[in-house]
Amino acid sequence: MTDKDIAAGIKAATGLDIDRHRVKVAGHIKKLGKYTAKVSLQGQISAIVNIAVVAI
């Protein structure tokens, strides 16, 4: 899962168009599990996004 995938997921869920360069993930997401990402919104405002990677 890439920063681009996370930005696309945010847009699909909320309608907000987030630039992938504003998404920061500690490490790489390559396995199933729970992760967090920091999204810089504007200036010093940021949000923490919880991500669950599951098998379908």
From TrEMBL:
SUPFAM superfamilies to which the protein is assigned, alphabetical: Ribosomal protein L9 C-domain (SSF55653)
InterPro entries: Ribosomal_bL9_C, Ribosomal_bL9_C_sf
All copies of domain Large ribosomal subunit protein bL9 C-terminal, residue ranges: 2-55
Identification of the protein by name: Unannotated protein
